[in-house]
Amino acid sequence: xxxxxxxxxxxxxxxxxxxxxxxxxxSQVTMMFWYRQQPGQSLTLIATANQGSEATYESGFVIDKxxxxxxxxxFSTLTVxxxxxxxxxxxxxxxxxxxxxxxxxxxxxxxxx
Amino acid sequence: xxQLNQSPQSMFIQEGEDVSMNCTSSSIFNTWLWYKQDxxxxxxxxxxxxxxxxxTSNGRLTAQFGITRKDSFLNISASIPSDVGIYFCAGxxxxxxxxxxxxxxxxxxxxxxx
Lengths: 113, 114
Prior knowledge:
The structure holds two protein chains of two kinds. Chain A is mainly β. Chain A has strands at about 5, 10-15, 20-25, 30-35, 45-50, 55, 70, 75-80, 90-95, 100-105, 110. In chain A, strands 2, 4, 5, 6, 9, 10 and 11 form a seven-stranded mixed beta sheet that branches. A four-stranded antiparallel beta sheet of chain A has the order 1-3-8-7, with no helix packed on it. Chain A starts with a strand and ends with a strand. The mean pLDDT of chain A is about 95. By secondary structure, chain B is an all-beta fold. Chain B has no helices and eleven strands. In chain B, strands 2, 4, 5, 9, 10 and 11 form a six-stranded mixed beta sheet that branches. Chain B is globular. The mean pLDDT of chain B is about 95. The interface of A and B includes residues 4, 31, 44 and 101 of A.
């Protein structure tokens, strides 16, 4: 499976600011995904990061709030914009495997004050 | 949206006991996956299932893809303290393989008493 890293691993931010999270994979992958995991909850898909085109967002998530870049097949960023305390969550990137499975990065723990 | 109903929500067991958890849905899936998440980490894939009726083991873990394609279970035998964590089922809906998207269950929190 691919080795996935995320930066930062955690951050504490002030409301109204924005944070960009990076996801780096050690091999080229077709599919990359971004998830949110609110405290004590399961994983919710934010969007599919498409290489060279706009991300595909799930219901309830919009580009203005969660802009995503995917400049190549090994890297993607998720920005959490104009943050509020409700955005405090773990943000996870994942990559698709060869057989419908997904492999996850270690996550970014965000606290918004 | 689509949902996976995972149960039980939490379990507190004695070391050495066997554990069973399951996920059910009203929809048909073409893939079932089981993940474990330790505190401060991302989910780690434990077992992947691709065919109805498939039974797959990974050490002390055994999982099955339900015959109806609407459910799956995970068993852990002879639990040990390092089994502590949150277990998630995830499924890929039939007909959605081109999207690669997964739906996750709510998770089962497992605690093991030494």
